[in-house]
Amino acid sequence: MPSLRRTITILFGFVINLPLAILGVAIYLSVLAGVNENVENKNETLAKAAEEAVRQSLADGALLLASVTEAKAPYGETPGAVFLESALVRTGIFEAVQILDAAGRVLLQLPGADEYAGLDMSRQPYFTEARRSQSFPFISSSFRSAFSGNPTAAIVLPAEDGYAVGFINLEWLSRLIRAMNFGRDGYVAVADRNGTLIAHRHEERVAAQENISYLPLYPWARDQKRGTARYEIRGEARIGSIGFVDEAGWILIVSEPVIDAYAPARKVALIAALGVLAALALAVTGSTALARSILNAFNALVDDAGRLATGDYSSIRMRSPYSEINALIESLNAMAGSVAERERSLVAAKDELASALGVKETLLREIHHRVKNNMQIMSSLLALQEGKLVSDADRAVFEESRIRIQSMAMVHEKMYQSEGVELVPMREYLGDLAAGLLELYPNDDVALNVEGDQIELDLVRAVPCALAVFEACANALKHGIAGRGAARVTIRLESARGRASISVCDDGPGFPAGFDPSNSDSLGFQLMGGLAEQLRGELSWSNAEGGGAVLSIRFPLHGE
Amino acid sequence: MIAARSALQYNIAMWVRRTRHKPTRFSFGVALLAALASSCAPKPLTLGFIGGLSGRNADLGISGRNGALIAVEEANEKGGVRGRRVVLEPIDDAQDEAKAVAAYASLSAAGAYAVIGPMTSDMALAIVAAYDKGPPLVSPTASSPILSGLDDIFLRVNPPNASEAEWLARYAHADGVRKPLVIYDESNKAFSEGIAAAFSARYAELSGRQAMRISFDSERGARHAALAAEARETGADGLVIVASASEAANLAQQLRKAGFDGLLYGTGWAMTQALLDNGGASIEGMAFTHYFDPNGVGERWLRFRSRYERQFGRPADFVAGLGWLAASAAIEAYRSAPRLPAKEAILKRASFDGLQGELIMDRYGDAELERFKIVVRDGAFVSAP
Prior knowledge:
Chain A has about 550 residues and is α+β, with helices and mostly antiparallel strands. Chain A has helices at about 5-70, 80-90, 125-135, 170-180, 205, 215-225, 260, 265-310, 325-390, 390-415, 425-440, 460-480, 525-535; strands at about 95-100, 105-110, 140, 145, 150, 155-160, 160-170, 185-190, 195-200, 225-235, 235-245, 250-255, 425, 445-450, 455-460, 485-495, 500-505, 540-545, 550-555. In chain B, the strands form 4 sheets. Chain B has a 5-stranded parallel beta sheet with strand order 2-1-3-4-5, with helices on both faces. In chain B, strands 7-6-8-9 form a 4-stranded parallel beta sheet, sandwiched between helices. In chain B, strands 10-13-14 form a 3-stranded antiparallel beta sheet.
């Protein structure tokens, strides 16, 4: 059988904790998705900003190179060279500038002045590729300058009868993107179209012309040109958001360790987990307290209900915080009051009934007493009449009638002498009746015993039963012991399965052979037969094995 | 011209106004699964790399590193070596001995299986002098004969330069050079002085004449025009430049500018793409001797060259090929004998498939290969008969 405690616990679990947990997880997932998207959006925005900054700077540099070189030809003149160096190199954008003739020979190189004039740059990739592409401004891949030894990339523009080449100062580019470093380890890097780093917060990696084309990120970035992807470098998982300067084929990577990038997500997860745990703890604590409070009220109620069951109808004084339980207490109190009132009424009715019963018994006793007295008077009258009879036979008839009347009187006497007037205890009654009968047949040697079960009969059955037993006993005394000195008569009472059996046995000669009461004019047998019928029973007679007559009357204990 | 300028300025202005499509994102789920899978992977096999990756002479180091990187990527594309991913940890020695020694210490402490490099003999000598045990150095290009025949941590996939000097002397003598001058860079003295001395000795044997010598130190900033003028004043008719590619290119440019019209010879140190890019027409005809044929048509070399150019945007040179070979040798040695220390594993295997034939190491980890005469023709290295 399920307990109320378990049911309440499960109920709280489902009703409070489960929705709370589901809600917590749902909120966490939703916030997590938003946070992750924000992280990627932030890095992609930074990549876009870096891309625009680099593109604008390249555009500015190209415009500067174009404007200055156009304004200040011919280049061999010292003022022009000074102006070029001031305008282009000392600004920090370019580390050197070359003016080449159409064949790729150096007309002017700054800084360096005359030393480089006339040198052949015709096989430099920036020259051959720019001349082949004829798309200006042309941005070369990075390469190591033979003059400075530094890695660089060239912007090539058409100039008067030749080309103007600006060697980009990659330190300037690194400084430009270094300003965009963020967080603990977030940075922006730029790689050229071959995957060689040209700007990085670690300038030594640019100086070493580190190539990142082996990273899976690189071909993906070159293909996609936008977006965010995870990659691993030197055993560290990072996310890279991509920008692309397509004029130069440069790829910008906003790189951040995954552990840092998604730190907000972890914080959200932690806060969500703590929140859910706290909410669960609160819910469990609250629900336990609530369940305990309800159960305590119920337990107190069970105790009080047990008290009511033992007959203590005093009011339940406990008050619960729950209106329903208080209503139940009120109902129980009302019920207890009602039961107590009913019990009081019952006791009064019982007392009244007992009193009425006592009156009735008194009346009945009085009636029985009067009936008995009347029968005694009738017996006395018969005795007076008997004395006037001369015939012995007549006197015998009178005597039998008188004995029968006394016998009936004795029944009534027993009735009013008994404790209750409804039921007659037949064993005692028949014992008294037998004693009375012996007085009618005075003989000291006759032993009359009553044995067997106690049988109680109402007055309707007791009188015919007593008269039948009386006739049987009288018959035994009259015929069973006649002519003998000592005799014994036994009355045996038995009850089983709703039927009573009363047998009268003597130790006399028994019924004569061929005895048939229907052929006899015995009034006693006729009476006994009639009384048996009145009792809805039957009369039987027989001789006992050891000798003696047995008369039995069997009848139902209760009327139908 | 004005119209062209306007179009140019329009193009520049357009840079800042263009908008692009929003591309799709990587699947983070796939990346996460990959990350989870990788978290269960065995520890990677680390190969260190030491080379000059910055400064004027960095082309050697960068080419070697890029070649080694391709070898590592190829191994990883095949699922790694014995289930282990291979990683390359490059460190720049800036052609500084102290930095090279510190780089080796760092890689050794990090548990590198082997160290590819260094790229120059000076750096190799510094490390060998400081350490007699630890992960082996497998150098792609350090070729000083001083490092030969020693049971030390130094192994290499290129032959010692003694034969290089000998062959250059033969070429000069055969070309009719009567007053040879060797200009060598002392920043890699172990290599350059050896070459200069060996060249001089062999040339003297062949012709009975001594070769002149001029040295400079590129680390202190070479003044190429002055150097060219000095060389011009010697009256030399043949010049052997023992320097890096950019130094050799600059020097050649200044020599031609100064009117030098004699023959130029170079060493493997300068035989990189940087020489061709920076040298212009002044290096046309410059001769080298090398065991690496730039015109090789073997499938492995062509495949490597194609991949290198696609990945790094420039032609592959022999240094890149040797960088690949050194890294491949270390990887293959581990594949053959994973329980042995790297040096024993490499020497036990001894034979490795290179991009242009088989490399066989002797018991000291030195290699010898057949040499070709290489000349610069039309801006490219070509093998000469």
